[in-house]
Amino acid sequence: MSPESTGQNEHHIRVYRRRFRAWRGNRPFWAGLFTMAGGLPIAYFPYADLHLGNMTLAMSTTAGAGSLIIGVLLITLGFTMWFHHIVRVFAGIAAILLALISLPVANIGGFVIGFLLSLVGGALSVSWAPAAPQQADEASVDEQAAPAKDLPYEERPEGELQGAAAVPRQQGAGLDTAAEAEGGRHRAG
Question: Where are the alpha helices (DSSP H) in 106-183?
Fold first, then answer.
């Protein structure tokens, strides 16, 4: 066995960890996690009983069904952020709106815990952007890394400033054939 083939000797936990890390990097993972964590207290607290010694404090209110719906929707939006990251902006805005609605409906947004977690998750989802794809061809990476001023004038990119001042590109006079056919007049005139 050669020293370059380390893949066979790797432990399976490392392989799973690396796969999870790659999966997590391609989607708004933390946004979904915060949103789901915010949905749990919003859905749980209206149905929970708090025992303080011999005294039982019940949080059941008339808004129990609304709290359950908001909490389940937030958890669903968290999974949507994970598995359908294309709609991350919609899911983030919906999570922010549901977090704001949970303030008056769901026991002050799950005692502010669920509200804050859902708000942060929605904001993270809206602001997340996928990474730029990496270049497979190393020669193109070397060409991009070379400073343009080291290249001859003919090989420099077209949009690059060539000196202290830039001259705007002018449009060719013969490109607008419709204007020439009408004698340069506008169609409405």
Answer: 107-111, 113-127, 138-145, 177-181
Does the pLDDT at position 83 exceed 60?
yes
Query: What is the distance between the alpha carbons of residues 41 and 48, in angstroms, rounded to a whole number?
Result: 10
> What is this structure's pTM?
0.62
Asked whether 39 and 73 are in contact (CB, 8 A), the reply is yes
Q: For residue 57, list its beta bridge partners.
A: 50
Q: Please give the structure tokens belonging to residue 140.
A: 């193109």
pLDDT digits over 118-157, tens only? 999 999 999 998 877 776 655 454 455 555 566 666 666 6
Q: Are 45 and 107 in contact (CB under 8 A)?
A: yes
The tally of CA atoms less than 13 A away on the side-chain side of residue 177 is: 0
- Dmax (CA) of the chain: 95
The amino acid occupying position 158 is E
Q: Which residues touch 51 (CB under 8 Å, ≥6 apart)? A: 57
